[in-house]
Amino acid sequence: xxxxxxxxxxxxxxxxxxxxxxxxxxxxxxxxxxxxxxxxxxxxxxxxxxxxxxxxxxxxxxxxxx
Length: 66
Fold this sequence. Notes:
Blueprint: E1 2-4, E2 7-9, H1 18-25, E3 32-36, E4 39-41, E5 56-61
Parallel strand pairs: 1-5
Antiparallel strand pairs: 1-2, 3-4, 3-5
């Protein structure tokens, strides 16, 4: 079980990396910032960052506009 955006949830079988998790959430990746246990994880590290029980994942999405 992880905490995603403040809510506890189970991780689907087969989800191993942060990039897998981002993909299954179907969130818009442009402008997305991912925090793992309150630390920003750079996009190039998503594939190599393993999801483990007890982790806290937060998505912040920046949107430009006028």
